[in-house]
Design goal:
Layout (H helix, E strand, L loop, with lengths): L10 E4 L4 H11 L5 E4 L5 H8 L4 E5 L8 H14 L3 E6 L1 H14 L3 E5 L10 E6 L2 E6 L7 E4 L9 H18 L7 H23 L4 H21 L3 H13 L3 H16 L4 H11 L4 H12 L14 H12 L10 H13 L5
């Protein structure tokens, strides 16, 4: 056993129904007196109670999927003009991503309050999109100083978004089994993350307001993100980042569609990872366990359903091939990657 593992420094607070007080405590601990509160107008009702408890100097509502560079630039100017010393983000991955874009340049600390299961709040990964190209990178400046998980903020999350977002978290776990820096600690965290998500997601699907199911899913999503931050972005995420940026596809749904195809592609070449994933699902095979969960959740099935053109497969192929890590478990060729993308585009059954 020979590896190097880095654990990222971050405070994590689980506080169901208590996010206003919990966020206020985190802002105070950071010495913040001028908060830039980033939350889209869709999240206004969730952000308002938090805003009342913290010293807000600016509320910023322009949140756009995949964080276009021009949107990030406007947020950066707004933060500077307001003299903000702390960023508080209330929302999903796009909201957290915008806060990270501001922090990347300013170094301002972030208190992240997730309202989906995106997991971005627990990573030091940033992403910006210019034109059709999404660029991602790693920088400790963008790692939120604190995360406040309040299950009460997710009771109104639409069912379809819950499923897609939860499967996006599942993709973090699966990629963490064989990412470019994956180690035994990452695999242990990812295995427990899969178990928690496989337990929590069906519970939330049955009762979207059930705090216990939401907390189990949040717990799984957090473990998934921590594992992913250490293991790095593997084949699955490279595919989804290229497709998302190139065709403006919805982030979570794209991950939910692509995941079973990448798992089927890599699992035969990674027996230890396959065994861990299967155990976490309580299944004989990893793919079968994921398929059972997806069936129970009525998961997203095809990229074409979300606006990807069929000719986009050939257009994206070269960019994806360049991005996939050299240590991917299965050898990747133009031919087998094209076949994978065609199957995911059409939603073909997995053999």
């Amino acid at each position: 056993m020979k590896f190097t593992h880095a654990t990222l420094p971050q405070r994590v607070v689980f506080a169901a129904g208590e996010s206003p007080a919990a966020v206020a405590a985190e802002v105070e601990a950071l010495g913040g007196s001028k908060v830039m509160l980033i939350a889209s107008d869709r999240e206004k009702e969730l952000a308002d109670p938090i805003a009342k408890e913290i010293p807000v100097v600016l509320r910023h509502e322009e949140v756009v999927m995949h964080v276009p560079v021009e949107v990030a630039a406007r947020a950066l100017r707004a933060a500077a003009d307001a003299g903000a010393d702390v960023l508080v983000s209330v929302g999903g991955g796009s909201t957290t991503g915008l806060a990270k874009a501001v922090a990347l340049t300013t170094g301002l600390p972030i208190v992240a309050v997730p309202t989906t299961y995106a997991g971005s709040e627990a990573t030091n990964v940033w992403g910006l999109t210019e034109g059709e190209t999404k660029t991602t990178g790693v920088d400790d400046k963008v790692l939120p100083a604190s995360v406040v998980y309040d299950a009460g903020l997710l009771t109104s999350l639409p069912g379809e978004m819950t499923v897609a977002s939860g499967l996006n978290a599942m993709a973090h776990c699966v990629d963490s089994m064989w990412g470019p820096r994956a180690d035994p600690i990452d695999r242990a965290l990812a295995q427990e993350g899969i178990r928690a998500l496989a337990t929590g997601l069906p519970a939330v699907a049955d009762d979207s307001t059930g705090v216990e199911g939401i907390e189990q899913t949040l717990y799984g999503a957090y473990l998934a993100a921590v594992a992913f931050a250490s293991a790095g972005s593997g084949m699955h995420h490279k595919i989804c980042h290229v497709l998302g940026g190139m065709f403006n596809l919805p982030h979570a749904q794209t991950h939910a569609v692509v995941l079973p195809y990448v798992l089927a592609f890599n699992a035969p070449h990674a027996p230890e990872a396959e065994s861990r994933i299967a155990q976490a699902f309580g299944s004989q095979k990893a793919g079968a366990g994921l398929a059972t969960l997806r069936s129970a959740l009525d998961a997203p099935r095809a990229l074409r359903d979300y606006g990807m053109p069929e000719d986009g497969i050939a257009k994206a192929l070269g960019s994806i091939m360049k991005a996939i890590p050299d240590n991917n478990p299965a050898p990747v060729t133009d031919e087998n990657l094209t076949a994978l993308l065609k199957a995911a585009w059409a939603g073909d059954p997995i053999n």
